[in-house]
Amino acid sequence: MMNYQHVFNQAIQRLHEEGRYRVFIDILRNKGQFPNARCFAGHNGPKPITVWCSNDYLAMGQHPKVIAAMEEALHDVGAGSGGTRNIGGNTHYHVDLEAELADLHGKEGALLFTSGYVSNEAALSTLGKVLPGCLIFSDELNHASMIAGIRNSGCEKFVFRHNDLDHLRELLAKADPAAPKLIAFESVYSMDGDVAPIAGICDLADEFNALTYCDEVHAVGMYGARGGGITERDEVADRVTIIEGTLGKAFGVMGGYIAADKVIIDVIRSYAPGFIFSTSLSPVLVAGVLASVRHLKQSSEERDGQQAAAQFLKDSMADAGLPVMPSVTHIVPLMVGDPVKAKRISDILLAEYGVYVQPINYPTVPRGTERLRFTPGPAHSEAMMAELVAALVEIWDRLELELQKQQAA
Asked: Which residues, including other chains, have CB under 8 Å from residue 134's CB and lie 6 or more apart?
């Protein structure tokens, strides 16, 4: 007879043995004081900490305009949406936000989802099912939500080496010229902090008559004059068929979306189960996002502050000999290479220094590349970063980890 409990216990035990069992920290952020927060885990009452790994990159989740918009909506229309979009859950807030997001990316339309994961899974799986015999070409480092959507589409999938245009060309050239094709990739890859060659991918899409699907979740709000992402910054948004983004990172609230021409939006709206059968986002959340998107379209102050902080932290880590990984974006990854040590460093930082940064382990990154991933924002001061680097150097020495020797000038 099957011992279900034994099987479940073994599954958890394997994670402990591999050093990658995940522990969720128990915190509350302090409104208007990001990155300051309170940690409840293992303490008699809350202990002050500094958050270094939030995806609320620009602290827009704390912005007065966002909070005021959400409070106004709450008192105007109440808490929930009341249902799916086609049954009671379509509010004027949803309509307005979709128009703002379409405008942000220079597209005819946009469609909201409850999360970035759902938007990727729903859009990619639906596109693959609607296009007969579709072939999907996927970057090897694409997010789990994209992989899930491609798998659920039932399409034949071809994985190309990360950001490798020559390999992508090779795969496209071997494919049936008459078959529908879709190239799926991200603009910013959040664990390494590198950027896709979007123009080159679009050139190949033009040559081989393929559609393009670009996940901009770690770039919307962050890049471009109005926060339209890398596609706006690099002036290629008009060449990308579908742009997908999140509302829970730089925009600071919650949700996901796609932007494309009206027909594609209508197809996803009409066929995607992940959209049709999901209760829509609360209008309170949508109101907050609306305020955030409108603000970041007009203000670059937050983006500039974030980029300056990220560069300062990268330079400081490198100067101290810490193994900071090369990154051309706002992501600051610090290589550890071992899940147990990554967790140990994270635990010491929290317990002794009040620094909160989560270890990143497999399957988020490949085994042997475990790391700490820092996301400094405009509210992280240079003094905070100096204290962080000093703490890391002390821990590296304590755990007998190697610092990198600096090259003589």
From this structure: 127, 128, 153, 155, 179, 180, 181, 182
Per cent of the chain over pLDDT 90 is 91
Residue 281, phi-psi category: left (phi > 0), alpha (psi -120 to 50), beta (remainder): beta
Q: What angle do CA 243, 246, 249 make, to 5 degrees?
A: 135
d(CA 371, CA 353): 19
* Mean pLDDT along residues 212-240: 98
CB 259 within 8 A of CB 224: no
Paired with 65 in beta bridges are none
The CA–CA distances, whole Å, from 13 to 17, 145, 163, 363, 368 equal: 6, 26, 36, 16, 20
Q: Is 65 a catalytic residue?
A: no
Quick: pLDDT tens for 364-392.
Answer: 888 999 999 999 999 999 999 999 999 99
Is pLDDT of 406 > 60?
Answer: no
Question: Are the beta carbons of 59 and 51 closer than 8 angstroms?
Answer: no
What is the rounded CA–CA span in Å between residue 86 and residue 65? 30
pLDDT of 409 above 50: no
Q: Which of 249, 341, 343, 405 is catalytic?
A: 249
Please, what's the b/e burial string for 373-409 (b: 16 or more CB within 10 A of its CB; e: otherwise)? bbbbbbbbeeebbeebbebbeebbeeeebeeeeeeee
Average pLDDT, the chain: 95
- Answer whether residue 44 shows pLDDT above 80: no
Instruction: Please report, as a single letter, which amino acid is at residue 116.
Output: G
The two structure tokens encoding residue 332: 């600051």
Backbone conformation region of residue 287, classed left if phi is above 0, alpha if psi is from -120 to 50, else beta: alpha
